[in-house]
């Protein structure tokens, strides 16, 4: 019995899983979600509540895999073993480690895995079926060789390299990054104006890629276009819906909904510009990582905005690499639709699968 976790700044998702016929299966009725900020004592307290909610005792847990939206800290024990710990940056939780989980559940080192949330998605890829993915590039060729890249736009923007192991076919070494925190690279006059608009609003004028190519970025693009003289006025229905949530938490879904359902001009322009910038960042990743083996898009935004990612703007922006444009013309870009992909990958890692 595996305890799998997908820990983010917004929600903490936990579930029990089993390995059946060498595939991960979630135990029916055990998937629970908790609002992370409501639990000041952190993950260990949420786990206690989770076990009570599903009427399970710690002794029933045989392995643990936890994916966390935050950078891992690694230290070496006196015995030479690597110990992982993490402290989330967006919520004020106490730090927690693999050691804490081992102590709580009386497990050994091999039975507990604490990994970055992007690593968790990458570990899930071998479990995905054709129903779990959507190809964005009509000219894509599935290539057996080459590095791969994973990029996930959600609350933030995660980026990870899957470095091909040339001695073992089908095996990759995972290298998470903080690519979403690099500075935003505009590619045209409108994006330059967008950058300058937020340079004036942000502390020190530093605008990250994930400030614009992520969920909050959709709301920021909308605000920028609303203030731009060349774009239509905001629709009163959209504005009324946005005003109902002063926190701004639901602004991106509202904008996406009006773009998809009513083709509201301002919301439509917002998602088209978002798709362009997302495609451009993917193109940059392919070149920086030599990820000619293909790209996966994780996160919650891509599955919900497929119409905009498939309308051609995203792929054209990705391929627009100057002298390397032809090299990117047949790159596979697959959107991951699996709703439990983080939990799935964490569970696979707990079982020691590559």
Question: Helix segment count?
Answer: 14
What is the overall pLDDT average?
93
Q: Percentage of helical residues?
A: 25-40%
How far apart are the termini? 19 Å
Beta content comes to 15-25%
Low-confidence segments, ≥5 residues, pLDDT <50?
Answer: none
Summarize the biggest pleated sheet.
6 strands, mixed
The rounded Rg comes to: 21 Å
Which series of helices and strands comes N to C? Answer: EEEEHEEEEHEHEEEEHHHHHHEHHHHEH
What's the domain count?
2
CATH architecture assignment of the largest domain: 3-Layer(aba) Sandwich
Look at the structure and give the CATH class of the largest domain: Alpha Beta
Please state the overall shape, judged from the principal axes of the Cα atoms.
Answer: globular
The third-level CATH topology of the largest domain is Hexokinase, domain 1
Structural notes for this entry:
- This protein is of the alpha/beta class.
- The protein has two domains: 125 residues, ATPase, nucleotide binding domain (Nucleotidyltransferase, domain 5); 209 residues, Hexokinase, domain 1 (3-Layer(aba) Sandwich).
- The chain has 14 helices and 15 strands.
- The strands form three sheets. Strands 1, 2, 3, 4, 5 and 9 form a six-stranded mixed sheet that branches. It has a six-stranded mixed sheet with strand order 10-15-14-11-12-13, sandwiched between helices.
- Strand 11 and strand 12 form a beta hairpin.
- The radius of gyration is 21 Å and the shape is globular.
- The mean pLDDT is 93.
């Amino acid at each position: 019995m595996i305890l799998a976790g997908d820990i983010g700044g917004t929600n903490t998702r936990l579930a029990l899983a089993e390995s059946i016929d060498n595939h991960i299966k979630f135990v029916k009725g055990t998937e629970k979600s908790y609002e992370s900020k409501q639990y000041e004592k952190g993950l260990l307290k949420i786990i206690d509540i989770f076990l009570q909610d599903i009427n399970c005792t710690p002794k029933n847990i045989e392995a643990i895999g936890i994916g966390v939206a935050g950078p891992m800290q690694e230290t070496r024990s006196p015995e030479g073993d690597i110990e992982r710990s993490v402290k989330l940056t967006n919520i004020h939780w106490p730090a927690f480690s693999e050691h804490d989980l081992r102590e709580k559940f009386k497990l050994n080192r091999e039975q507990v895995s604490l990994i970055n949330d992007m690593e968790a998605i990458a570990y899930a890829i071998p479990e995905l079926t054709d129903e779990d993915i959507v190809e964005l590039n009509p000219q894509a060729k599935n290539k057996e060789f080459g590095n791969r890249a994973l990029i996930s736009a959600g609350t933030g923007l995660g980026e990870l390299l899957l470095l091909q192991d040339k001695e073992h076919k089908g095996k990759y070494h995972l290298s998470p990054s903080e690519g979403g925190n690099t500075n935003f690279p505009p590619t045209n006059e409108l994006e330059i104006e967008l950058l300058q608009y937020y340079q004036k609003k942000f502390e020190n004028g530093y605008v990250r890629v994930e400030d614009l190519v992520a969920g909050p970025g959709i709301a920021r693009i909308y605000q920028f276009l609303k203030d731009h003289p060349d774009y239509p006025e905001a629709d009163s229905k959209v504005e009324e819906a946005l005003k109902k949530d002063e926190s701004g938490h639901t602004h991106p879904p509202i904008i996406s909904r009006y773009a998809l359902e009513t083709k509201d001009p301002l919301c439509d322009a917002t998602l088209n510009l978002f798709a362009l910038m997302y495609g451009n960042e993917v193109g940059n990743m392919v070149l920086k990582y030599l990820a000619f083996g293909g790209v996966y898009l994780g996160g919650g935004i891509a599955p919900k905005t497929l119409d905009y990612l498939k309308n051609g703007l995203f792929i054209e922006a990705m391929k627009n690499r100057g002298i390397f444009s032809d090299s990117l013309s047949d790159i596979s870009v697959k959107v991951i639709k699996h709703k439990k992909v983080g939990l799935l990958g964490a569970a696979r890692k707990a079982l020691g699968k590559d």
